[in-house]
Amino acid sequence: MISKADIKKRMDQLRAEVAYHAKLYYVDDAPVISDYEYDALFTELLRLEKENPEFASPDSPTQRIGGEPLDKFEKVTHQVPMGSLQDVFSYEELRAFTRRMDVLFDRPEYSVEPKIDGLSVSLTYENGRFITGATRGDGLVGENVTNNLKTILSIPLILPEPLSLSVRGEVYMPKSSFLKQNAEREAQGLPLFANPRNAAAGSLRQLDPKIVAARGLDIFIFNLQAGSVYSDGRAPKTHSEVLDRLSDLGFKVLPYRTVAKTYDEIEEHIRKIGSERGGLPFDIDGAVIKLNNLSQRIIAGEGTTTPKWAVAYKYPPEKQTTKLVDIIIKVGRTGVLTPNAVLEPVVLAGTTVSRATLHNIDYINSRDIRIGDTVVVQKAGDIIPEIVESVPKKRTGSERIFKMPELCPSCGHAVVRDDDGEGAAIRCPSSACPAQRVRSITHFASKNAMNIEGLGPQIIELLIDNNLIQTPADLYYLKASDIEPLERMGKRSAENLIAAIERSKDAGLERLIYALGIRQVGEIAAAAIARAVGTLDALFEVTAEQLMTIPDIGEITAANILDYFKQGDSRVLADRLIAAGVKTSTSATQKSDSLSGLTFVLTGTLPEMTRGEASALILARGGKVSGSVSKKTSYVVAGEEAGSKLARARELGITVLDKDEFLKLLEESDRKGGT
Fold it and tell me: 319-401 sits in which CATH class?
């Protein structure tokens, strides 16, 4: 029998091995073992920690996979203020900066390095252990995101020396992670991230570290903020010396940097970085030029808001001209027809571009973009190609004005134009549209909708390709014998899927309405509608006036609901769902008025509870559920991926509840209300 001492020794050995190989892979880009071997070591450590919790360690590499969700972030006062840099937008402005330094110093040296487009953070270590990580915030006070930063595999949890120091870095989302995240979000029908910087910032501020761990964030360290990195007591003399030492300590420091001794060398390196910008695996928005000598920085001094010893040169967006060969239409999950440009291939920001988004017909018309035009193309956030403008002076007379189709190119159904204030989206309203099929059925089966476990996009595509399903209702007529012969399936998988579909029949009207994917009808609105109408059949008879009496259902949402249920395809879908035994009515009733007069806003994903279910609990007690935070909001109930609504609640000083606090409030209100 293995002794506890031997188990602890093995766990310590595994922690050291996993940390060592993680650094080789994520920091040095020089792995010496396969991914399979690394996963085996990690899995063994995870198992031993689970079986022997008395030997757990906060510094273990397993802590990177994400801890328990937080209800809010604590504030952190920075030991050293985290300032910003003065921007310069031309080489003339940059030369003026170096001339000022030439007046102060004899032949000063400069560190020239890429300016990573991400989110600034500080990392604090005590006796070699990572203890606190915080966002920049306002420069003086940030937010404690330590648990989220621990999920970034290139951040060392333990330094090789017992040093106490604070470093500054830039958290970013690699381009590969950005494209992967957007592909997954598109498949799920979720809004796409606009650019890697916004994606990184939003990810780092998630309340659940497990979500952060899945986002693939990384970091570059670019400065020492406090303390000494020299265990022998020597102080660093230059910035480049500091970065070299930080690299020795296991930090992933800024790449592509150089020490320049003249203005010409500075400009040459800036141009070099700019020429390679498109091929870099991360986004940059400029180059940083700083005095390399640390004592000279003290003499140069600080300005009111920025240091006088450094500037940031900002690159203009790279643009290229090419020919617009054609405009094709892509139909999305919600039926939106999006025009996409087919271009003569052109190299832009290091990659060959042959497609670009045109957003919508109003975007095309406002820029007078025509098929055959010479157009100017750039990459939004250096990632997504878009047409900025046309070049009318290069027209030959053969160009054609583009018109959106009147019929859906996928199913032939007449399209409609949204009248939602923006007035730009052209949409196919048919729920049977083939182009919408995979995404609409994926949404129907998703966790917060009908929650059909194991039914993801790949399985749905497989079922569609084999002509087994065309609409969500077809799911309820499948048999295990239909699924078992399919590729990647088998008897057990088929039986499990059929059982999951069968369980979903009892999801309830609230989830069903949300699952239908009606535009602007989220979980909260779906729950409110279900309570108001009672049955799915009733929605085919409801009027706009009746819908607009439901909280947060305005004129536009009411029109969307009516448009959906007046389609013949929707009636057929409903009849087949009813015939299959799917629950299409609600038994919800108002049980009390204990929350009367209180307005709740739900944001994020609550553990083991959908927003629709939470909304129903509030409505059953006479409370109101709103979709936006205002001074009239009584409580904000925040779950995972809580975003701007949570931030707005904090600004207004509104009480924020997590799921447990929310349920406790309901219990207390029930006791007071005598229910």
Answer: mainly beta
